[in-house]
Design a protein that fits this description.
Layout lengths: L1 E5 L5 E6 L2 H4 L5 H14 L59 H17 L3 E4 L9 H11 L4 E4 L6 H7 L5 E4 L6 H6 L2 E5 H10 L2
Parallel strand pairs: 1-3, 3-6, 4-5, 4-6
Antiparallel strand pairs: 1-2
């Protein structure tokens, strides 16, 4: 599968072969859904906590006598019906991560890449580098390429000037190839890969 290579100035810079086993698959929504659920569950902090009636600080003595007051009978001030009492079945600190096999995660990334290629939302650029970290210049270059909502993936390291210029552009994410993931690919309209990123992905899925 061949695709055109462009530059940041929107000029043609040749063509490149996209590996069929990475970019030529028929996307499966079920695998992509499982991967996104896994990612979002994994990044939850799980630090929410509410005190139970065993943990709130109140006296354990009986509030008032059992009979003769005309009120409902109560044995503890710590129960949830009173202000400041413990929460029944409240949230507890826990790990929200779920299990997903490594092979399924790798397959999901291939399907995400294939979905962008099939939808015509994949752009391959020669390189990502700027002479100076100027956001306005980069925004102009992105508008020429039609990028208003995109994930940009570079090689092992993102060039410093480009990273600094891109960080203040709305709806544009920039990642090194090690950070490429299914959720970020799917949440952005276009996927921009450098030739270095393509080579790294080919090496990764050999």
């Amino acid at each position: 599968m061949k695709t055109d290579v462009t530059t940041l100035e929107a000029k043609k810079a040749g063509t490149v072969d996209l590996p069929e086993h990475i970019f030529g698959l028929e996307p499966r929504k079920d695998i992509l859904h499982r991967m996104v659920v896994w990612q979002l569950a994994k990044r939850r902090a799980g630090t929410h906590k509410a005190k139970t009636r065993a943990e709130v600080a109140y006296s354990g003595s009986k509030l008032f006598r059992q009979k003769g007051t005309g009120r409902a009978r109560h044995g503890s001030r710590r129960v949830g019906v009173f202000r400041g009492g413990g929460k029944a079945f409240g949230p507890v600190s826990r790990d929200h991560a779920i299990e997903l096999p490594k092979k399924v995660r790798a397959l999901a990334l291939k399907h995400a890449l294939s979905s962008k290629a099939k939808a015509g939302e994949l752009i391959v650029v020669d390189a990502l580098s700027l002479k100076a970290p100027k956001t306005k210049e980069l925004a102009t270059a992105f508008s020429k390429l039609g990028l208003d909502n995109a994930l940009v993936v570079d090689g092992a390291e993102v060039e410093t000037n480009f990273r600094l210029a891109a960080r203040n552009i709305d709806r544009v994410d920039v990642l090194p190839v090690q950070g490429i993931n299914v959720y970020d690919i799917l949440r952005r309209g276009k996927l921009v890969l450098t030739k270095a990123a393509l080579e790294a992905l080919e090496e990764r899925f050999k």
